[in-house]
Specification:
Blueprint: H1 12-28, H2 33-41, H3 60-73, H4 75-96, H5 103-110, E1 115-118, E2 134-137, E3 143-152, E4 160-167, E5 175-182, E6 188-191, E7 205-214, E8 219-223, H6 231-265, E9 267-268, E10 274-275, H7 280-308, H8 317-343, H9 353-361, H10 371-383
Parallel strand pairs: 1-4
Antiparallel strand pairs: 2-3, 3-7, 4-5, 5-8, 6-7, 9-10
Length: 388
């Protein structure tokens, strides 16, 4: 799947249009339909699809760079589209490792279908290793899902929803069953409850499943509960964590740009009208932000390139991935905080872009893997598991 170009899919004019709409979507708590339309037109949703199937044929490293760029203009738009890109990225990871079970996802993406992530469940700290959703098998190989899925980004527009649930039909051998639901399936309801502090335009509403049936041909994995070496789990973790890190690094990049602008714009009466860009304390804060940001960018590039190259990190993959996610989101929070201090009190106004970034960046602490889970993963890797 060779990349076809080194130029960004999003040209400067499109980026400017997307940025111009972001504040309104945040203020009105609305989905960025115009962003999605324009991004679709330039092929953004089919970046992972092979060129032979009508896509752009990009690898994960290239898509991560594109997501960072998009997030500098509209973080919530980038976060929402991340969910579609994760599924198409999973399909690509599997295909490149000889598994074509989700090749149809790449073809559907090229045909205009929009994929969303319906895995998150309130109170489920097992994440992919357990589920509170019931998956009941049908005689024809289909599965009926009943449960409550939270943080379903792209909720106004998705056409295919990736879900999983627990099949307890054989109590001795329970299974976690992964499948895709069509939006038209009976028993799928979107609860419009997304009224949040930040990332408002992602419209990550709750989805209720009440016996929603995935046909047999859309059931693509059955795994035992608990940690798994199945390539699907690696595909989800690698794409989710790396693309998430890319989005929050885009926020970080934009915050530094705004801090630099503010430092040159603001002047000090105490210093005889000189710009704050000459003040040593302000310069320190901007430099601290720049140092923190610059350390994350090559980490994303390197780890994504390893996924593209089929690098064999084995069990070390998961601590590497969760570590990147935590470093990227925490670094972005630090950078935005520094930028806010540089910008001064004007940043607290609701009209401030930096104030919006301050609210958006907070969401990073809630995405899997959270700090507790990530530290447990890394501790187990370095120290071994705690004996039971």
């Amino acid at each position: 799947m060779a990349e076809t170009t080194t130029e960004s899919v999003i040209d400067d004019a499109l980026l400017a249009r997307i940025r111009s709409r972001a504040a309104q979507h945040d203020r009105e708590n609305t989905f960025p339909h115009d962003d999605l339309r324009e991004l679709t037109e330039v092929g953004y949703l089919r970046m992972f699809t092979p060129v032979a199937d009508g896509g752009l044929g990009f690898g994960l490293a290239r898509v991560a760079r594109e997501q960072t760029r998009l997030a500098t203009a509209a973080p919530a738009t980038a976060l929402a589209i991340n969910m579609h890109l994760v599924w198409t990225g999973v399909a690509r990871v599997l295909l490149e490792r000889g598994d074509d079970s989700l090749a149809w996802v790449l073809r559907d993406a090229a045909a205009g279908e929009i994929f969303a992530f319906g895995n998150s469940e309130a109170g489920n700290d097992l994440v992919l290793f357990g589920s509170t959703t019931a998956a009941v098998p049908g005689a024809d190989g289909s599965y009926a899902y009943t449960g409550r899925k939270i943080f379903t980004s792209l909720s106004p527009v998705w056409t295919r929803l990736g879900v999983f649930g627990r099949d307890d039909s054989d109590p001795e051998h329970p299974l976690l069953v992964h499948a895709f639901l069509d939006r038209s399936a009976d028993g799928v309801t979107t609860v419009e409850d997304w009224d949040t502090l930040g990332m408002r335009a992602s419209q990550s509403n709750t989805t209720l499943l009440d016996g929603a049936v995935a046909p047999a041909e859309r059931v693509f994995r059955k795994l035992a509960p608990g940690p798994s070496a199945d390539p699907l789990i690696f595909g989800i973790f690698s794409n989710f964590e790396i693309l998430l890190a890319a989005v929050y690094t885009g926020i970080s990049q934009r915050a530094i740009e705004l801090a630099v602008e503010a430092a040159h714009r603001r002047t000090s009466l105490k210093a005889g009208g000189r710009p704050y860009a000459h003040d040593p304390d302000i310069r320190w804060k901007v430099a601290e932000a720049g140092i923190a940001h610059d350390g994350i960018v090559p980490q994303i590039e390197a780890l994504a390139a390893d996924v593209d190259a089929l690098a064999a990190h084995g069990a070390a993959w998961f601590p590497k991935l969760v570590g990147l996610k935590v470093r990227a989101t925490e670094s972005a929070r630090f950078v935005v905080d520094q930028a806010l201090r540089v910008a001064g009190g004007s940043a607290i106004y609701s009209s401030s872009e930096l104030g919006r970034l301050y609210r958006d960046v907070v969401a990073g602490i809630f995405h899997p893997s959270d700090g507790e889970s990530a530290h447990s993963t890394v501790a187990n890797s370095l120290l071994g598991p705690v004996p039971e």
